[in-house]
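--- STAGE predict ---
source: upstream dedup step, 1 unique chain passed
mode: sequence only
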Amino acid sequence: MRFLRYEFLRIFRDKKVILFIIFLLVLSIYYISIGVSEYMGFLNKKENFIAYEKQKVKQYTNYIQYGGYGFRVLYELSPVTVFFTNSTVFKDIESNVDTLEILKIYHSFKGKNLFTQKESFKDFSGIVFLFGSLFMIYMGAGMIESKNYMRFVLKQMGLKKVFFKTLFSRLFWLNMIFVLLFEVVYFFTLIRDIRLHVFSIPFLLPFLLYVLLFLNFFFFIGSLMKILSKFGMITYMWIFLFWVVSIFLIPEINRVYLFNESQKLPTNEKLNIEKLKTLMDFEKKVVEVLLKKQYSSTEIQSIYMKVAKEYKKNEFMLNVSREMVLRKGLRNLINYYEKTSLLYPSLYYSFVSHEISGQGFYGYMDFYDYVMKLRTEFLEYYIQKVYIKRSQKIEPFVKHNENIFGAKNHLPETYLYGILIIMCYCIILIGISYFRLRNLIYKK
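--- STAGE serialize ---
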């Protein structure tokens, strides 16, 4: 208790700390407000989207039109996105499902373009990432005031007791600042009528845990650098340099490398040309068959039924396999990015933020798979209506909002590994700091 009281006074009597807490609180509420406004705007867009798509179907006069224009599929944002407004792989995206052979995912996030987005700090997650890490590395550097102060305290108790009690007492109050900040922001979203359902808690709590470990990592770096620099003022130059490299340089190098790797994926244009060529060649073959002789309407209908089934079985599946090649390449690149991100806390912080927001790589792949599934179902529906049942009345394919894809929040499969790795880093930093301090204090 003595150490807890002492560190409480050291931290909260410092006007700079109080000003920082106020600054962080105001900035967090400001960006959460922006996130809430954007999410509410999306909900309005969703209602208009549903109404427009229903009305659009009523304007079609035949199934040929319906098949050609198709319908749009909207990616519905998760309420959790208010914490990660700009810490996402993509913003709002949609796709178009029709009988053409081009898989359209709007806002140019298909294929390698998924890896061109730059990190933004203009949301709650980004503010904690940016300013929280700077604050913690600074507070870590201030944990031990000087070598002479330590020698004075050591007259009363052992180094191990002083070091660890000071370390964990200081960390307790610093962590409490961010836990309380998270709680304030969370309840602010509830006040603003954002319904963070119960299912959101299992994602937000693991995110908070990683945030605290991430911030503690920087705290330990700060304290270690203070000891390594023998408590000199040059410490603050080194900690600022480390912070810049960790927060800006390493993520940017990783992003550029990932983007260069993504260039090896097939281009959307090349893929679309191949698929269209397959479609055109098939249509040309059908026309040639019909021009060979005069057919009765019944015979023509029979031919259409036959070629429609043949197309679905052969050409359509060939084009699906081409999409699957692209999907496999994307999946492999995402797996690589996830595994390399594990190696450094600032990279994995971003990856976890992406996935928990529901607008990360996992979410994109879910949407990709869902659109591919809808295309197959819509083609079957089209063949049935045009070539088999020969229906005249337009019956909507979408009956229960199948054109709204609800975002799924994901906890990365590697999350536990990420926790274990950053904990190992923290333990190693504590160990090095302690033994280096012991050598420094008892050095003759």
